[in-house]
Amino acid sequence: xxxxxxxxxxxxxxxxxxxxxxxxxxxxxxxxxxxxxxxxxxxxxxxxxxxxxxxxxxxxxxxxxxxxxxxxxxxxxxxxxxxxxxxxxxxxxxxxxxxxxxxxxxxxxxxx
Length: 112
Known about the structure:
Blueprint: E1 20-23, E2 27-31, E3 41-45, H1 57-78, E4 82-86, E5 102-107
């Protein structure tokens, strides 16, 4: 079933309202609007696609390159003690927005 992408918050990102941290031709990153911790960021492919497994190899590689770049940025800005990287794929796995996004969540000693 094809979803209506006009309702997708990631397809409608407004650079004037959203802080885009890093951007490439096929992926961008921004702070999560409902952060689990200070510095919680999202890596979002620009092409609308619901499942990570439907991304092209180039898009997947771009996502992981972005994760590495963001890790460096977040280490410098927030000095976390660790990170969680996670992707929810499909509603059964907790995906609430049907557009691929990777969570990069800084963790701090004692934050759980």
